[in-house]
User: Which sequence fits this backbone?
C-alpha cells in the first residue's frame, strides 16, 4: 500500500532526525583525530581521558550527589506534605496546590533567577548548599503531584481502619498509608532524580564556588570548544539510558508509563 | 483524626513561602525599584526598568523571542502531529516500542543534545565536511536563526507528540468506524471526527513547546553563537554579566506575564472546543 | 433479657457547618444485642456509628462504654472494631496479614496469632486463602476478610456500616444469615447500619428507626412493623395505607367517612390522628359483606401475591392478596379492629 510506504518513510526520516546527532557523537567518540570533520582512525583514548579529566569527574560526582540527596529529601518532604494536603479543607488545598504548581509552570529561568535573588539577599554564598536547596525546591512539586492521585485512589477509610484495629496514627502512617501509596512515591522519586540529573538552568544560577554539574560543564565547554571526551560521555549516557529504558519497558510492557 | 494529619502539610507551607513565594516577590520588588542592590537603603521605587522595553534594541529581542518560539511551535505541530497519529495507529505491540525509541533522545542530557547539533552544523562541522566530500557548496546555518529554530524543534518535538498521542490513543475505534459507516471518507473523518477530539492534546503540546522555547537561553547561546540574543539571554546577562537585577527582574516578570497570558488564551481555546466545538464543525 | 448495658448515648449531637445531622439522640445498647440503625439516606446513621467508633467528635452529648465516658478516647484505644462500608482492606497485604494486623500491634506471640487467625478464617469460611492477595477476592470474600479482621481482636462491640451494600441480592441473603450465625457464635454486640428495611427486620434484635438525625422509634422488628409510632415509621417500614382520621373515644376511630372499632386508646376526645392499615391485612370480599366498597384500578402480579390498587371514596388503598380481581371490578374491603393502627399525628415527622 502506498499509505504504508509514506508512513514508513516519514517515520524513518523523523527517527533519522532524532538519532543522527547522537550517532555522529558516538562515531566521533571513537575518532583518533580531535577534529570533528576528519576521521583519523579508531581509538578508545577519549574514554580513558574522560575518567582522567578532573573537571568532568567532579561534575559527575556533584550531579549524582545532588540528584541523590535532592530526590531523597524531596521525596520525604513531598510525601509527608501530600498526605497533609490530602486531608486539608477545600480552600487550603486549592491555595497550596496552586503555589506548589508555580515551579512547574514557571519557566526554569524565572525560578532560577528568583531563587538566586533570594540566596544572595540572604547573604548565602552560592555553592553546593544553594544548588541542593534549589533542586529540592523544584523536585518537591513533582513528588506531591505524583503522590496525590494515589492518595485519592486509596479507600477513604483505610487509615481509619488501621486506627480501628489499634494502630496509633504514626503506626498507621508507616504500615498502611505509606505502603499503599508507594507506587506514587517511587514514581515521584524517579522523576525528581531524573529532573535533577538533567537540570541546567536552575543549577546554573544557583551554584558557585567551583561546584558544577554535568550540564554546566558541557555548557561551558561547548562555548570554548569541545573536548572529544564529551563525545565519549554522550555514548556512555546513551547506552545507560537505552539499557534502563529497555529494562523498565520489559517490566511494565506498557510504553505509556515511560513518559516522565 | 482526619483533621489532624493536615498539619503534616504545614512545614511545607512555610517552605513554599520561603522558597517559592518570597523569591517571586523579591523579583517583583527589584523590578519596580532602582539603585544599588547591595545597599537596601538606596533602593527607590522606579519603573525605569520597564521603561527600557521601549528601547528598540530590547523590544526587538522580545519580539524575536516570541517569533522564533512561535515558529518552532508551529513546526513541531506540523511534524509532530503525523508522528503521533502514525504511532497511535500502529499495531498494539509495536506502539510501546515506537514510543520508547521516540523518547530515548529526551532522556539524554539536554545540553548534550544541543551540543550534538553544534558538532553537525558548525562551519567546519560534520555536515559541511560531508558536503565538501561530495563536492557541494558548504552551508552557513550556524550560528544563526535557522540553527536556533532547528535546535528548538529537535529538543521540544517530543513534548508536542506525547500529549497528542495520549489523546489519539484514547479515541474510540468504534467512533471512527461509525464515521466511516455513515459515509465519511478518510479525510472527512479526520477533519470532522479526529481533529476536534485532539484539540486538548494540541493545546497542551503547544504550551509545552512554546514555554521552554520562548524562555531558553542555552539553544540561542550555543546554536546562535551569541549573535542571536533572546529574552532568556537578556535575563541571564542581567544577572551574571551586567549585574542589573532591576532590569533582569523586570524582564522575568514580563516573561511570566506573557506566558500566563498565552496559557490563558490556550485554555480558552481548549474550553471553547469543549463547549462550542460542535457549533464550529 | 436482663443483660447489662454496654453502650449508652446521651444527647449525642453532631453538626457540620451549622447543619445538625445527629440531633440529641439517646440510646441504650445491651450486651450481645444485634441492634440496627435504619433510616433513609443522609439521616445520620453513619455519623452516629462514626462517633461510637471514635472517628468523629460529637459537638454535644456523651458516649458511655461500660459506664465510662469515652468521648475523648481515640479509636485505637476503644475496645470496639468496625467493618467499613467498602471494607477498606489493606491492599498491599495478603489475607493473612490483613487479619493479623490488629494482633501484630498488640504484639501477640506468633503461635497464638497463627491460631487465632486460623480460627477466624474458619469462622468466615475462608480456610486456605491466607496467601491470597485481597484484590483477587470476590466482593463477598473481601467482606468476610473485613469481618474476620475486626473480629479477631475480640472486641466487645462490632460496628458494621452497610456491610452488605455492595453485594448482589443472592449473596446478600446468604451473608445476612452468616452474619447472624456469627453474632450468635461469638456473642458480641453488633451495631449494624442499613437503609434496607427488610434486612433490618430480618437480622436484628432491636431496630432503631432514624430520620433527619432524630430517632423515630426503637423496638423489636415485630413492634416496629406492627406498632409504628408515627407516620414516618409506618411509611418507611413496609407498604402501608396511611389515612387521616379522628379518634372519637377509646377504641373508636373514624376515617373514610365511617366509624371503626379499634384496639387503641389514650387519645384525647376527637383528636386528629393517622391511621395505618397494612396492605396484607385487608381482605377482599364481595361488596355487600364489607365495611368499605371500592373499584379495582390496577393489578400487578408480585410472585407470591397480587398487588391491587382499589379506589374507595377519595383514597386509594393498596391491597396484597392471593385472590386476583380484574380491573374495574367492584369489591369490598374488610379488616378487623386489630388491623387498624392509630398513631398520633406529628407534623415534624412528615416526609
Ligand atoms: N464530613 C462531612 N461534612 C459535611 N457534611 C457531612 C459530612 N459527613 C456527613 N455529612 C452530612 O451529614 C448527613 C448525614 O450523613 P450520614 O453519612 O450520617 O448519613 P447516612 O444516614 O449514613 O446515609 P447513607 O445511608 O446514605 O449512608 C448528610 O446530609 C451528609 O451530607
Ligand atoms: Mg452511611
Assistant:
Amino acid at each position: 500500500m502506498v499509505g504504508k510506504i509514506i508512513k514508513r518513510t516519514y517515520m524513518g526520516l523523523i527517527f533519522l532526525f532524532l538519532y543522527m546527532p547522537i550517532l555522529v557523537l558516538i562515531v566521533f567518540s571513537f575518532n583518533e583525530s580531535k577534529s570533528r570533520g576528519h576521521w583519523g582512525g579508531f581509538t578508545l583514548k577519549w574514554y580513558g581521558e574522560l575518567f582522567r579529566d578532573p573537571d568532568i569527574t567532579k561534575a559527575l560526582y556533584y550531579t549524582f550527589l545532588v540528584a541523590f540527596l535532592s530526590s531523597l529529601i524531596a521525596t520525604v518532604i513531598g510525601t509527608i506534605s501530600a498526605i497533609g494536603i490530602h486531608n486539608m479543607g477545600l480552600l487550603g488545598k486549592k491555595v497550596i496546590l496552586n503555589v506548589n504548581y508555580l515551579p512547574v509552570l514557571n519557566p526554569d529561568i524565572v525560578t532560577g533567577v528568583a531563587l538566586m535573588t533570594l540566596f544572595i539577599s540572604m547573604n548565602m554564598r552560592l555553592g553546593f548548599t544553594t544548588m541542593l536547596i534549589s533542586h529540592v525546591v523544584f523536585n518537591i512539586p513533582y513528588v506531591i503531584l505524583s503522590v496525590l492521585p494515589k492518595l485519592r485512589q486509596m479507600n477513604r477509610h483505610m487509615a481509619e481502619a488501621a486506627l480501628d484495629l489499634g494502630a496509633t496514627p504514626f503506626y498507621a502512617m508507616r504500615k498502611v498509608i505509606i505502603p499503599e501509596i508507594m507506587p506514587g512515591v517511587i514514581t515521584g522519586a524517579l522523576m525528581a532524580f531524573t529532573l535533577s540529573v538533567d537540570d541546567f538552568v536552575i543549577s546554573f544560577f544557583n551554584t558557585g564556588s567551583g561546584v558544577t554539574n554535568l550540564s554546566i560543564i558541557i555548557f561551558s565547554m561547548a562555548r570554548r570548544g569541545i573536548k572529544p571526551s564529551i563525545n565519549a560521555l554522550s555514548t556512555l549516557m546513551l547506552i545507560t539510558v537505552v539499557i534502563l529504558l529497555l529494562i523498565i519497558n520489559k517490566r511494565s510492557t506498557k510504553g505509556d508509563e515511560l513518559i516522565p | 483524626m482526619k483533621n489532624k494529619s493536615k498539619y503534616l502539610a504545614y512545614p511545607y507551607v512555610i517552605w513554599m513561602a520561603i522558597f517559592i513565594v518570597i523569591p517571586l516577590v523579591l523579583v517583583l520588588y527589584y523590578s519596580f525599584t532602582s539603585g544599588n542592590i547591595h545597599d537596601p537603603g538606596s533602593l527607590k521605587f522606579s519603573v525605569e526598568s520597564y521603561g527600557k522595553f521601549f528601547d528598540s534594541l530590547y523590544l526587538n529581542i522580545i519580539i524575536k523571542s516570541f517569533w522564533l518560539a512561535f515558529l518552532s511551535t508551529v513546526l513541531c505541530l506540523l511534524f509532530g502531529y503525523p508522528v503521533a497519529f502514525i504511532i497511535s495507529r500502529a499495531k498494539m505491540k509495536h506502539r510501546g516500542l515506537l514510543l520508547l525509541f521516540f523518547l530515548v533522545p529526551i532522556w539524554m542530557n539536554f545540553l548534550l543534545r544541543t551540543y550534538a547539533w553544534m558538532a553537525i552544523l558548525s562551519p567546519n562541522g560534520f555536515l559541511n565536511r560531508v558536503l565538501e566530500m561530495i563536492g557541494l557548496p558548504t552551508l552557513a546555518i550556524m550560528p544563526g536563526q535557522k540553527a536556533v529554530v532547528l535546535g528548538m524543534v529537535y529538543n521540544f518535538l517530543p513534548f508536542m507528540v506525547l500529549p497528542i498521542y495520549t489523546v489519539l490513543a484514547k479515541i474510540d475505534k468504534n467512533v471512527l468506524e461509525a464515521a466511516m459507516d455513515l459515509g465519511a471518507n478518510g479525510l472527512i473523518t479526520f477533519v470532522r471526527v479526529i481533529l476536534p477530539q485532539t484539540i486538548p492534546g494540541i493545546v497542551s503540546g503547544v504550551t509545552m513547546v512554546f514555554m521552554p522555547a520562548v524562555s531558553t537561553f542555552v539553544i540561542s547561546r550555543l546554536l546562535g553563537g551569541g549573535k542571536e540574543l533572546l529574552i532568556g539571554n537578556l535575563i541571564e546577562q542581567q544577572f551574571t554579566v551586567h549585574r542589573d537585577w532591576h532590569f533582569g527582574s523586570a524582564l522575568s516578570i514580563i516573561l511570566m506575564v506573557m506566558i500566563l497570558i498565552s496559557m490563558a488564551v490556550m485554555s480558552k481555546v481548549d474550553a471553547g472546543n469543549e463547549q462550542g466545538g460542535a457549533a464550529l464543525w | 433479657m436482663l443483660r447489662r448495658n454496654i453502650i449508652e448515648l446521651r444527647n449525642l449531637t453532631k453538626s457540620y457547618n451549622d447543619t445538625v445531622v445527629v440531633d440529641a439522640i439517646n440510646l441504650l445498647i445491651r450486651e450481645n444485642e444485634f441492634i440496627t440503625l435504619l433510616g433513609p439516606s443522609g439521616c445520620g446513621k453513619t455519623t452516629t456509628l462514626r462517633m461510637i467508633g471514635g472517628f468523629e467528635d460529637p459537638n454535644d452529648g456523651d458516649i458511655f462504654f461500660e459506664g465510662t465516658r469515652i468521648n475523648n478516647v481515640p479509636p485505637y484505644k476503644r475496645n470496639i472494631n468496625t467493618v467499613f462500608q467498602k471494607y477498606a482492606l489493606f491492599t498491599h497485604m495478603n489475607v493473612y496479614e490483613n487479619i493479623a494486623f490488629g494482633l501484630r500491634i498488640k504484639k501477640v506471640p506468633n503461635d497464638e496469632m497463627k491460631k487465632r487467625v486460623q480460627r477466624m478464617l474458619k469462622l468466615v469460611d475462608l480456610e486456605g486463602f491466607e496467601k491470597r492477595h485481597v484484590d483477587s477476592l470476590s466482593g463477598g470474600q473481601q467482606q468476610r476478610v473485613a469481618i474476620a479482621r475486626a473480629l479477631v481482636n475480640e472486641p466487645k462491640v462490632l460496628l458494621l456500616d452497610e456491610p452488605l451494600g455492595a453485594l448482589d441480592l443472592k449473596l446478600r441473603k446468604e451473608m445476612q444469615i452468616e452474619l447472624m450465625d456469627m453474632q450468635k457464635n461469638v456473642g458480641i454486640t453488633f451495631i449494624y447500619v442499613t437503609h434496607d428495611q427488610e434486612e433490618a427486620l430480618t437480622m436484628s434484635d432491636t431496630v432503631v428507626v432514624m430520620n433527619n438525625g432524630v430517632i423515630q422509634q426503637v423496638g423489636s422488628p415485630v413492634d416496629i412493623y406492627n406498632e409504628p409510632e408515627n407516620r414516618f415509621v409506618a411509611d418507611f417500614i413496609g407498604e402501608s395505607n396511611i389515612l387521616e382520621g379522628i379518634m372519637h373515644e377509646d377504641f373508636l376511630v373514624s376515617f373514610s367517612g365511617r366509624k371503626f372499632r379499634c384496639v387503641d386508646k389514650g387519645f384525647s376526645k376527637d383528636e386528629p390522628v393517622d391511621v395505618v392499615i397494612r396492605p396484607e391485612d385487608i381482605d377482599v370480599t364481595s361488596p355487600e359483606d364489607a365495611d368499605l366498597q371500592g373499584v379495582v384500578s390496577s393489578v400487578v402480579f408480585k410472585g407470591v401475591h397480587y398487588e391491587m390498587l382499589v379506589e374507595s371514596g377519595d383514597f386509594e388503598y393498596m391491597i396484597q392478596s392471593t385472590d386476583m380481581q380484574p380491573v374495574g371490578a367492584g369489591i369490598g374491603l374488610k379488616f378487623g379492629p386489630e388491623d387498624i393502627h392509630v398513631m398520633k399525628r406529628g407534623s415534624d415527622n412528615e416526609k
